[in-house]
Amino acid sequence: MSRFPDGFLWGGALAANQVEGAWDADGRGPSVADIATYKPNVDPKEYAAHHVVTSEGIAAALADPDVTYYPKRRGIDFYHRWREDLALFAELGFGVLRVSIAWSRLYPTGEEETPNPAGVAFYRDLFTEMRRLGIEPLVTLSHYEMPIHLATAYNGWSDRRVIELFVRFATTCFTEFGSLVKLWLTFNEIDSIRRHPFTTAGVIEDKSPQGFEQAVYEALHHQFVASALVTQLCHELIPGSRMGCMLTKLTTYPLTCEPEDVAAAQAKNLENHFYTDVQTFGVYPRLILADLERRGITLPILLGDEELLAAHTADFVSFSYYMSMTESVSPDAERTPGNTVLGVKNPYLPSSEWGWQVDPVGLRISLIELYDRYRKPLFVVENGLGARDELTAEGKIHDPYRIAYFRSHLREMRRAVDQGVELLGYTSWAPIDMISASSSQISKRYGFIHVDFDDLGNGSGQRRKKDSFAWYQRVIASNGASLDEE
Ligand code: BG6
Question: Catalytic one among 176, 189, 327, 412?
Fold first, then answer.
């Protein structure tokens, strides 16, 4: 009978900038997330236009103390309610919880010599309580939340000096929390730098005289070097630790078997894999180097960088999976948005309200593809459905659509495990409603736990269990066996 391995880690995933709030509490400095504004009913096809960030825009946002239209400044108040939330995660039976550490809570501008003691204390308390509850922390060092000062003063990761500042931050994390945290990730969705360079790497177009694209690849190279350096450090400072890389898995199918459609899909997949190729094989893929040369982009590779990349690769490959994409060379092909991408609509798949194409089989395909390519353990660290929920007069949330999404994806995940894929665990996105990364809405709800806030922050913040709560609880308690019910 098909089953998940003993010790399989079941849990959920969060990001500091989407849950903590308390953006100016206890010495925290502003981060790149704090200038993200609420985007009501944005046509997702215009996503890119809504993410143009200018120096002038940043200055205006920072001068504005408002929290209503900057929802990540308030999050779901996890900073004050984390004990209650952890208790609910423990009740779900979590063996793992993925969180991130807000860099600007430890280093408000990123340039301080020593960390902010209040920030250190917050995370130490959080990880201690997780351990007490039997929940293994899986910690992302960088999840769209660098101190904004490093964006405005350095143009983010395009400046090589940021590597050293990040290493200082990571060293603090390893020395302060290493006895509690063994599982780490470097950069969330490192590939997203191409789609939103400011959010991922603090790169600003009007500060990039070398050209924006050039600056973005400089930043990416610096993130690769930083990944290798902190992987080395993590292994040295924390015995038994494991460091993963993290990719937005955007599996792309050809719309037809017309060879040019197949080639177009292949190009998308090669680009998607490029990042984890560097972080696991330790070298830049030849095809990517040739492409960069054609585009006139120069990587700022210094003496010793290539040796570093080769010597300190990831221990495991983690990824997010929400949807698949389709590609075609036909200009008439209908397009649909996905996770900060735009692709061709797949006639075989339904879509969420936000246009993301729901494809459980794509998760199985992705797992097999990644495992065959990298031969390293995998970890699904994000997967879930953003949907509107209705709170009934009795205070219930009936969410069969969410249960259906998870059930179908977990069944396909198990089929991949049955075929021999080595999978360490699964953290759903997200166990609790939070502020959306792309649109800063909370009405795009992902959780098993409802949070009583609306998009403008009105509400009590009360946590309520949705129907899916008991369903996921059963999946975990049975190590997936309950997936065979119905
Ligand atoms: C992932 C991000 O790409 O997608 C998360 O790592 C994000 O931070 C998730 O929340 C879902 O996207 P969104 O835009 O619906 O919040």
Answer: 189
Instruction: Point out which residues pair with 317 in neighbouring strands.
Output: 245, 378
Beta sheet of 335-337, edge-to-edge order: 252-254, 325-327, 342-344, 335-337
What's the gap in Å between 438 CA and the centre of ligand 1? 7
Q: Compute the C-alpha angle 403/405/411, nearest 5°.
A: 95
Question: What's this model's pTM, rounded to 2 decimal places?
Answer: 0.96
CATH number where 48 lies: 3.20.20.80
Specify the number of domains making up the chain. 1
Whether the CB-CB separation of 145 and 33 falls below 8 Å is answered with: yes
Is the N-terminal amide bond of 430 cis, ω within 30° of 0?
yes
Question: 145, 176, 218, 382: which is the annotated catalytic residue?
Answer: 382
Q: How far apart are CA 22 and CA 28, in angstroms?
A: 8
Domain, as residue range, for 471: 9-484
Of 411, 416, 422, nearest to 485 by C-alpha is: 411
Q: Which of 46-55, 132-141, 277-286, 322-331 has the lowest mean pLDDT?
A: 46-55
